[in-house]
Amino acid sequence: RPTVSYGVTPTQIMASMPGLDFVRAIFEGRLPAPPIMQTIEPFDSSAESGVVVMHSVPGMRHYNPIGSVHGGYAATLLDSAMGLAVHSMLAPGQGYTTLEFKVSFIRGMSADSGAVRTEGRTLNVGRRAATAEARITDAKGRLLAHATTTCLVFEIPGTSSPT
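The structure corresponding to this sequence follows.
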């Protein structure tokens, strides 16, 4: 497991890389992980073109006032997996931002859930928009939550994208 440092990669560095290389560099610890991931602590993460998989373990620190893991934990995992799956398909000089996402919670999570698997997968990546979906499953393969997203794809200012 690579040593994780947290921070924000300068835009020029991100923009100089194909999206898949950028995502893999984060997962391999060659670039900093986004600070939001300090709350999730994903591990055993992998990326292929259009597909991202992350594992994490919900804990007591993720609980809400009613005694279960807060929906924000699942939403963060799902949004991150979908966004990184989209990013893995981008050319150098391209960026994205989430326009909307919808989450459906199927089963609750607790500190006893153990490791969960989040898989994000692109549905379509076009010149201006991308769509993706993600699923969280438990160790028994049971669906815990799923989501869909629409992202805006754009040229990063100051760069020249081949698309």
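The first helix runs from residue 11 to 15.
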